[in-house]
Amino acid sequence: MDKKFDLTDSLEKIPVKIFSTPEEGAKHVARIIADLIKQKNSEGKKTVLGLATGSTPVVLYNELIRMHKEEGLSFSNVITFNLDEYYPMSPEDSASYHYFMRKQLFDHIDIDPKNYWLPDGNTPKEKIKEHAAQYEKKIEDAGGIDLQILGIGQNGHIGFNEPGSPVYSKTRLVTLDNSTRVANSGHFKNISEVPRMAITMGISNILAAKQIILLAWGENKAGGVQKSVEGKSVDEVPASLLQQHDNVTFVLDQFAASGLTRFKAPWLTGECEWTPKMIKKAVVDLALQLKKPVLSLTNQDYIDFGLSDLLEVKGDAYEANLDAFYQLRDSITGWPGGKPNAVTPNHPERSTPHPKTVLIFSPHPDDDIISMGGTFMRLHDQGHNVHVAYQTSGNIAVTDEFVTRFLDFATNFEKMFGIDNTKSQDLMDKATDFINQKKHLEKDSEDIRSIKGLIRRCEARATCKYVGLTNDQIHFMNLPFYETGTIEKKPMGQEDVDLTVKLIRELKPHQIFCAGDLADPHGTHKVCLDVVMAALAQIKKDGDEFLKDTYLWLYKGAWQEWNVDEIEMAVPMSPGQVRKKRYGIFIHQSQKDAVPFQGDDQREFWQRAEVRNANTADLYAQLGLTRYAAMEAFVRWKF
Ligand code: F6R
Fold first, then answer.
1. pLDDT for 438-477, tens place per residue?
2. Which homologous superfamily does the CATH classification assign to the domain defined by 368-637?
3. Buried (b) or exposed (e) across 515-541, using 16+ Cβ within 10 A?
4. Confidence bin at 1 (pLDDT 50/70/90)
5. 12-262 against 368-637: fold identical
6. Coil, strand or helix at 211
7. Is 312 a catalytic residue?
8. Separation of alpha carbons 341 and 579, rounded Å
9. Cβ–Cβ contacts within 10 Å for residue 148, how many?
10. Measured from the CA of 159, which atom of ligand 1 is nearest?
């Protein structure tokens, strides 16, 4: 393919800059902000920034704080206006955007508290119009916004301008979409506590900024980003209205960018290299769109869907069909640890050695069974030496009611058997008092956290026993980055990596399974993955021989599945195995029904897992391969 013409962005109506990680994207934007401040300072003017809240800009704020502390970047000449605030909401409330901004940025830089502004969520309703007009006037008096930073909602909202917000909308009181309330519920104890309204700057105020940078990280933003960048400029997708601005850039990580045609269907941009993976992607995509089995696709189908280029390369549809079909067929195996005594050159795993030492990393105490329970059981049943390492304690996901039940049990157990242990009674009384007097959103005491962690540990151990593992095959790592007692975690630290290096060295596994939630930039799963990657990099650097023989397989966490064209190992499950996996998930009783910080999917974990595994099997069947009841899916990561 002639690489002379870069046509990859031919369908994009907003310039995008794509980085491999949010941190790199944030560095780029922080540099732009720093340069702007310097330039404005040299002109003797103040810099006016428009700021956003939410999880997205946190990496940017971290980088600005770093630049302030290490490079002397000063904000003494900066005025900021935030886009929005919940309504009603006191600025002192820990869920408010006022609090968020102080905690994430303002408290750590030298901005004058008189120079930062947010809409006031305490304004009486009858005064909101007046307040909104004053807010806009303040922006105008400051000279207008020089640079507006935006995030994007999964539904395409900017600020709290939900779908349907007109391009001329101004600062006002708005009702939040239910999907936004659900998406933001992670910061509240439960959905009913998420405010129903907000005060937000309007689309016209955003478009009035001299420059706009929208940030988006993670695959769950990919759909909104794609529609905004490549779709029509319509108020159903508020961020698409940014196409009307002449100085706007979307700064994305590779996952938020993954819905763009240059990645999703690069053949349509006029520039595409036909590697086997790309052929599989194109053919699978075509077959699924046409609801046809792969082997039934015709030359005309290829031509109608912009794939004549592939036809030309392969000569005929049949050749391209077979190419994709074989790749799909060879990814299916009931022998996830390799089939012993068999010559299977295209099998995803090697037949030797057998048995293998397998190490499953589970970010939380139930991810192993939820995401790869069927494979976990098969590996054990096929004679492999399977170890599970639970990376974090998962203690914040246990409700107070659940821990109260255990405290009650423990207290009465001692009474029932006349066990007279004052130390343990004291501890339990203290813990019970704490729970009884615990305030809204208050952090748990160390004791309560330990008890909650213990509850989850017992559940994990019980699941391992159910699968057939013995105690020496179960490892609780309690990685320190997780132990903050709040949903915000510390970044990965050397201690996390060292613990992981130690375990991998001890076991010298032939296979490592790991939650590959590459797309989840803020969550625990991503940090857990980063820790394993850093540990592997260190072991590789040290030159340990055993690593040459280690395959790393990634499974997805509870939230998503790999696209079918990406799957490199699909492990089928019978209806009986599906049921057995379900009972394994049930053992995690603290996670049944509603859990704190449930996020935007109200289904229980076993339901999500079953739907997802059945869906994968269904897709394979639709593509013309054998129909199984369910399938678990993995991608091999070559490190
Ligand atoms: C918040 C705001 C919102 C967020 C959007 C994405 O000030 O303006 O539009 O940017 O809801 O939120 P996160 O970043 O949490 O995904």
1. 887 788 999 999 999 999 999 999 999 999 999 999 999 9
2. LmbE-like (3.40.50.10320)
3. bbbbbbbbbbbbbbbbbbbbbbebbee
4. very low
5. yes
6. strand
7. no
8. 30
9. 28
10. 8
Q: Are strands 147-150 and 211-216 parallel, antiparallel or unpaired?
A: parallel
Distance CA 254, CA 16 (A): 11
What's the gap in Å between 153 CA and the centre of ligand 1? 6
Ligand 1 atom closest to Cα of residue 200: 8
Question: Residue of the nearest CA to atom 3 in ligand 1?
Answer: 159
Neighbours of 41 (CB within 10 A): 15
Question: What does the alpha-carbon distance between residue 247 and residue 252 come to, in Å, rounded to a whole number?
Answer: 16
Distances (CA, A) of 403 to 39, 390, 414, 456, 521: 56, 20, 17, 11, 30
136-184 pLDDT, tens per residue? 999 999 999 999 999 999 999 999 999 999 999 999 999 999 889 988 8
Pairing label, strands 172-175, 474-476: unpaired
Distance from C-alpha of 257 to C-alpha of 199, rounded to nearest angstrom: 29
Residue with tokens 């054990």: 380
Over the stretch 320-329, which tens digit does the pLDDT of each residue have?
999 999 999 9
Structure tokens at 584: 């394994």
What single letter denotes the amino acid at residue 85?
E
The first and second tokens of residue 327, run together, are: 């790749």
- Gap from CA of 156 to ligand 1 centroid (Å): 10
User: CB within 8 A of 168, min separation 6: which ones?
Assistant: 202, 203, 204
CA 261 to centroid of ligand 1, rounded, Å: 24
CA of 104 from ligand 1 middle (Å) equals 14
Phi–psi pair at 318, nearest 5 degrees: -55, -40
Mutate to test the pocket of ligand 1, among 51, 81, 82, 83 (most ligand atoms within 8 A of CB): 83
Closest CA to 281 of 297, 296, 295, 267: 267
Structure tokens at 263: 């990645």
Question: What are the tens digits of pLDDT across the range 573-584?
Answer: 999 999 999 999
pLDDT for res 403 = 92
Which residues lie across from 511 on neighbouring strands?
Answer: 358, 551
The residue behind tokens 């280690």 is 550
Residue 26 C-alpha from the chain's centroid: 17
Residue 215 Cα, ligand 1 centroid: separation in angstroms? 10
Ligand 1, atom 11, lies closest to the CA of: 153
Domain 12-262 has CATH 3.40.50.1360: yes
- A 10 A CB-CB count for 464 gives 24
Predicted confidence band at 330 (pLDDT cuts at 50, 70, 90)? very high
CA distance 207 to 226: 20
Q: Which residues line ligand 1 (CB under 6 A)?
A: 52-56, 83-84, 151-153, 157-159
Question: Looking at ligand 1, which atom is closest to the CA of residue 157?
Answer: 9
| Single-letter code of the amino acid located at 80 | T
User: How many Å apart are CA 378 and CA 373, to the nearest integer?
Assistant: 9
- Number of residues written out for the chain: 639
The alpha carbon dihedral of 100, 101, 104, 108 has a sign of negative
Residue of 85, 100, 160 to test ligand 1 pocket, by largest number of atoms within 8 Å of CB: 160
Domain boundaries, the chain: 12-262, 273-331, 368-637
Out of 63, 85, 136, 162, which one is annotated catalytic?
Answer: 162
477 and 392 in contact (C-beta within 8 Å)?
Answer: yes
DSSP secondary-structure letter at 125? G
- Say if CB 207 and CB 241 are below 8 A apart: yes
